[in-house]
Write a structure and sequence with these properties.
The complex is a heterodimer of chains A (162) and B (183). With 162 residues, chain A is α/β, with parallel strands linked by helices. Helices cover 48% and strands 17% of the residues of chain A. In chain A, strands 2-1-3-4-6-5 form a 6-stranded parallel β-sheet, with helices on both faces. In chain A, α1 packs across α2, α3 crosses α4 and α4 packs parallel to α5. The termini of chain A are close together. Chain B is globular, with a radius of gyration of 15 Å. Classes of the chains: A alpha/beta (162), B alpha/beta (183). Chains A and B meet through β2, α3 and α4 of A and α3, α5 and α8 of B.
Chain lengths: 162, 183
């Protein structure tokens, strides 16, 4: 799927705030969002800060997507465990998967290996985006997010949305 | 000025504005002083009160939003001041009750006895920054922030004085649900 189609797909669900910390995998997507007058785009200094902003925005009626690299998921654990999960905020996380199958720079290898285990540990349901069935995957994830009133995650490897 | 005195001055200056209160004794003291469905008691996620306040401010530009923060919380998420300065919401008032200690965990000293949080807020481009240590100045600072646009930062120097305040007896989902209904 092209970045433009992917952005339109998310906006189609009513997501109108994209807040997070950039990753090179997201570069073409963020370039579009940054210049999109229909949504609010906010770059946070850290990923847990982005979760705080998303929570506040949702309290005020916006529909946020929280984007980050998986390295930043490590920084997000407390914001998830003591805020987003116990208060039950339905947040869509878009997490890029550096270190997928160990094929990446050394600083990404460990987090790349444990990412899905971490998500399982904190009981955040996740879906891995592939080139096929992107629409279907996003639809299932968003439905689950609202059904359970909890955060869910879409995992994005390099080369899927480009 | 003691923490509960500062909270009372703040509450007397308000007109039903939503408040995001930091975890620990700040939420507990606010709850004890006055409960309201428009109080978002942040039970955990230390550091994130100002971020939640920022999100609320950008999503409800027609409402004035107060963040009731502490020095430990502010120091833990200094990046938030940078983000607030960049987005520059007109309607956000960030009040920091600064007793130069982690009072909720036993009074261990924080860096705010040296680090000038008000100067950091100025450098982050908050539009109005005040440092106060008495009730009259605090009341004036809040009124001033209400009568002008741009994010305000009010550093309130308070005494180290805490009596054991009970926990906020609300569940996280109750805090959220009643806030959303009444905001």
């Amino acid at each position: 799927m092209k970045p433009k189609q992917f952005c339109e797909l998310l906006k189609g669900y009513g997501f109108n705030l994209f807040v997070g910390v950039p990753c090179s995998i997201l570069k073409p997507i963020l370039k579009l969002l940054e210049n999109d007058p229909e949504i609010r785009y906010v770059v946070a200094t850290r990923e847990d800060e982005a979760i705080g902003i998303a929570v506040g925005a949702q309290l005020g009626g916006m529909k946020p997507v929280v984007f980050m690299q998986n390295s930043g998921f490590g920084l997000s654990i407390n914001a998830l465990c003591s805020l987003a999960l116990p208060y039950r905020f339905p947040l869509l996380f878009l997490i890029t998967w550096r270190g997928y199958q160990g094929l990446d720079a050394p600083e990404h290898v460990i987090m790349g290996k444990i990412l899905t285990e971490l998500l399982n540990d904190v009981e955040v349901k996740y879906w891995i985006l592939e080139k096929e069935n992107t629409r279907k995957t996003v639809s299932v994830a968003v439905r689950k997010m609202y059904e359970e009133n909890l955060p869910v995650a879409l995992l994005l490897k390099r080369g899927i949305i480009e | 000025m003691k923490m509960y005195e500062a909270i009372k001055v703040m509450l007397d200056s308000l007109d039903h504005e939503p408040i995001v209160a930091a975890n620990g004794f700040i939420s507990r003291e606010l709850y004890r002083a006055k409960d309201s469905p428009r109080h978002f008691y942040m039970l955990g996620s230390m550091g994130l009160a100002s971020s939640i306040g920022l999100g609320l401010a950008i999503s409800t530009p027609e409402r004035r939003i107060l963040v009731l923060d502490g020095d430990g919380n502010t120091l833990m998420n200094l990046g938030s001041l940078a983000t607030i300065g960049c987005l520059s919401p007109d309607n956000l008032v960030h009040i920091v009750l600064d007793n130069e200690s982690h009072e909720s965990t036993g009074g261990q000293p924080t860096a705010s006895r040296v680090t000038r949080l008000d100067e950091i807020a100025k450098a982050a481009d908050f539009k109005r920054v005040r440092k106060v240590d008495d009730p009259v100045s605090l009341r004036n600072a809040i009124e001033e922030s209400f009568n002008s646009n741009g994010p305000s930062f009010i550093l309130v120097k308070i005494e180290k004085y805490i009596i054991e305040t009970p926990r906020v007896p609300l569940s996280p989902t109750d805090i959220k649900d009643r806030f959303v209904k009444n905001k």
